[in-house]
Request: fold
Amino acid sequence: MTKHGLSQNIKAHEGRGWVAASEVKEHGYGFGILMTFGEKGEVTHASNSKSAFQ
Reply:
């Protein structure tokens, strides 16, 4: 993905509640970024929370 395409994709995801969890880095033939849902590092989905596994 190009930097421009990635920046558009990031903005769209942020509008739906996603948060950048890393910096933009070269990945394969383009660029990539790690994004999480909710606060940086916070687990917000019940099926992915620690309490679901206890």
Remarks:
- The beta strands are 18-20, 25-27, 30-32, 35-37.
- The CA atoms of residues 21 and 35 lie 5 Å apart.
- The helical segments are 3-14.
- Residues 46-54 have pLDDT under 50 and may be disordered.
